[in-house]
Design goal:
elongated, 2 domains, 211 residues, 0% strand
Length: 211
């Protein structure tokens, strides 16, 4: 339960981007029943009618919608409309993350890092933070940078960590700037220069070339 509470603090700040992501998922010509169901979900959820919210997305999730799968996972994690079940939540996050759903990727990474709904696995946590980081998530860039700096999930790489903190800081994640300032005295001028090059190349290529 403590892990779940900590997770909710991290992700509350990110919830504002979810609706934007979902709007982008419905290009012109596809704004039909699927999009209507999503907005009906939000309307019911915001009213506290979680049972109706669940009805609106459960079929979509089972039919493969990554957005609906992510939202359904959230209902199971929060214990809203369903009995709280971290393992089922993890399963739905996995399905959505495999299809590239950004928020699901971050939830999945967190679950692997802390062992919520699955066995703790820092290699997999790093993998999913990395995937989310390459979608431009400042939070994921920060978390991936921490794992690379601490050597959790793979060999320690302070230069790549510095580059990730630089990008996360540029993208508005305050903690990344603080962590970056802490590690800079431990890096040589050459390492700092190389880290800056990685960050510039990564962001300049829209996250296509980042290692």
């Amino acid at each position: 339960m403590l892990v779940s509470k900590r997770k909710s603090v991290y992700f509350r700040i990110l919830q504002g981007i979810v609706l934007v992501c979902f709007c982008d998922a419905f290009p012109y010509g596809i704004y039909t029943a699927r999009a209507d169901a999503m907005f009906d979900y939000y309307e019911a959820y915001n009213k506290g009618d979680f049972a109706t919210a669940a009805v609106k997305i459960e079929t979509l999730a089972k039919n493969g919608s990554p957005e609906a799968q992510y939202l359904l996972g959230g209902l199971f994690e929060q214990g809203k409309a369903y009995n709280q079940n971290f393992k089922v939540a993890f399963s739905w996050y996995s399905k959505a993350a495999e299809q590239g759903q950004l928020m699901a990727q971050m939830h999945l990474a967190f679950d692997y890092e802390w062992g919520q709904g699955t066995e703790k696995n820092e290699v997999m946590a790093q993998k999913w933070y990395h995937k989310a980081a390459l979608q431009g998530s400042a939070f994921a860039q920060y978390e991936y940078g921490k794992l690379r700096y601490l050597g959790k999930g793979s060999n320690r790489d302070p230069v790549l960590a510095y580059a990730m903190f630089s990008m996360a800081s540029f993208n508005g994640w305050k903690e990344a700037e603080e962590f970056k300032d802490k590690i800079m005295p431990n890096l040589t001028a050459e390492q700092l220069s190389h880290g800056d090059e990685i960050a510039e190349k990564c962001m300049g290529s829209h996250y296509l070339y980042c290692d």
